[in-house]
Amino acid sequence: MSDLAWTKLREWLLEHKAIDTSIDSPNMIKRLDLSGRSLQKLHESFSLLTELVALNLSNNLLSMLPDSMKKLTTLSNLNIRRNHFTLLPEVLTSLHLRALNISGNQIEDVSILTQCKDLRVLDLSVNVITSMDGCINKENELRVLNLSYNYLNDVNELFSKLHSIERLDLSGNLLTSIPHTAKAMETLAELKISDNQIESIDAALFSLPLEIIDLSSNEITALDLKGLEDLETITLDFNPLDKLNTSDDFAPYLESFSCDGCGLKSFLPLVSTELKTLCYASNDISSIPEDIGIYEQLNELDIDNNTIVDLPDSMANLTQLKTLYIDGNPLSESAKKVINILQPEICDIHMKRGITIERAKEEDLTQMAELLSVLFAIEQDFTIDYDKQLSGITKLYHSKGKELLVAKYEGEVVGMVTMQRLISSAEGDYIGQIEDLVVKEEYRKMGVGSRLLNKMRAIAQAYGYKRIQLAADVDNENALQFYTRRGFHKTHLKIYHYNT
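Below the sequence we write its predicted structure tokens.
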């Protein structure tokens, strides 16, 4: 090893604040975080880090990795998420990686992965992959695979190769069916396959040891639920279900069932007495069955926006109920008395009174800037800087084509949302870009976020906007579910930032 080469590499790492001054040998560096440094290439002596085990290069401007990295024989965890790769670096085939994250690039061909037999965790999400045929070695050791938000339309061969898979995410692709080869995934515990175009599901799926399955936002019209004795959570939201049946052996230990916006006329006979979360929001259900009382472990029930008038007395058995969403139903006075007996901590017809939704005033801007720090603490792409946030929200307040709404309680800003007017060439007219929706933690689950969003949608409609759109962090599951349940649909578009 050249002392001069190490000296230059050390200076480069110090310049990028990746190591501290106590590091005086490349062998001391086992883990290295170079994320978000705007790197276009790695230092020419990077291969000196032969003891490196984990390397984070995410959120940079990289489009290639040097072949000299093959000397990093101990490297087992590599993150190159959100860079500018259009091809998988060939050097990956020389490494013995156990975990690889290449999410958020522009990669279509991943066939070289067939040479990466050691991988256990692989994230290929948010790329432009159209096929996985011939890309996974039959001797692979994959346990976790994320292929969400690509352009896959056939996973027949892929499923046949995933004999050790435990968690699989195929959300946001172009799949129309779950094929018979699903039977090969004998260890699969979690399957996310929402936001596709699935119409048919092979019976093989119901023989798997699944614990979690998300089939929301597909094109399923008929489904017979059976088996799945290990299942704990199933989500069927936003499918046009004309026929939905359950057998007596379906999911005996089910804890969470969601069927939001599916056009259902009645509750399903679920045999599990372990249910903790039950959602039938936005259907056409007019009554709740008397046997709902068997779900004594239920702590959250969402039946918003149905046609329910009366509630059965058996609901008094739901002594564990903490959250009840029941607004948007023509409830009778006797039904309201049942709710009073239950006394859930959060009930959307008994929310904190006095929270108002109004257009922001200039004196609200300082509180709004403080609220943004709550949002940016969640979203990875942004950093908290009060002065910048105050400057930004002030400029937005004084700009044309903007709308700023705040939720206030006793004069305090407890929530906010903003919208800017844009021109869409696709729509040929104005659209609204919604941003900065955030509610203080102690005021969440009170409908504040929904009220802010609904008010902003009404404003957009009044202005004649052809579309409203928003962006959300892909890792913020709560936000993604919130927007999906309120009618927003995910797209294949990806957002890129270029800092000038």
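The CA atoms of residues 225 and 461 lie 40 Å apart.
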